[in-house]
Amino acid sequence: MKQLSTGLLMVVVIGLSSLSAPAQENEDAKKDDAKPETKEAAPDMMKDGTPGQGEMMDGDDNMEEMAKSMTAMAQTCETMMQREMRTYPWVLVGGATVGTLATMSLALFIVLEIQWIRHWHRRLKTGQGSASR
Question: Of 105, 81, 82, which Cα lies nearest the Cα of 9?
Answer without folding.
Answer: 105
